[in-house]
């Protein structure tokens, strides 16, 4: 199972990622091991979606990072 997840950083910016092990990945964000969020801690998990297919999960992550995906998140989650 793959997880597409959304974090809210301390500066109120969103971070979208994809992983196979959600708990470990969140711990890495909280510990500062992820360069993109290391200086934006603490981070909070806003939500995630589980996807069985690896390629569909990464495609969904890519969509959420696009202009229309960011607009979708702003309208529905953030």
Question: Helices and strands in order, then pairings?
Answer:
Elements: E1 2-8, E2 14-19, H1 22-31, E3 44-51, H2 54-64, H3 67-76
Antiparallel strand pairs: 1-2, 1-3
Level-1 CATH class name:
Alpha Beta
Following the backbone from N to C, one meets helices and strands in this order, namely EEHEHH
Spatial ordering of strands, largest sheet: 2-1-3
Number of domains: 1
Find the CATH topology.
GIY-YIG endonuclease
- The whole-number mean of residue pLDDT values reads 94
Radius of gyration: 12 Å
Strand content: 25-35%
Q: What's the end-to-end separation, in Å?
A: 25 Å
What is the tally of beta strands?
Answer: 3
- Overall, the morphology is globular
Helix content class: 25-40%
User: Which CATH architecture is right?
Assistant: 3-Layer(aba) Sandwich
The CATH superfamily turns out to be GIY-YIG endonuclease
Number of helical runs? 3
Report the uncertain regions: none
Sheet bearing the most strands, described?
3 strands, antiparallel
Class computed from helices, strands and strand pairing: alpha+beta
């Amino acid at each position: 199972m793959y997880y597409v997840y959304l974090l809210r950083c301390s500066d109120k910016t969103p971070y979208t990622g994809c992983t196979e092990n959600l708990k470990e990945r969140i711990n890495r964000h909280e510990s500062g091991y992820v360069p993109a969020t290391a200086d934006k801690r603490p981070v909070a998990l806003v939500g995630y979606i589980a996807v069985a297919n690896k390629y569909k999960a990464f495609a969904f992550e890519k969509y959420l990072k696009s202009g229309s995906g960011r607009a979708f998140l702003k309208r529905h989650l953030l």
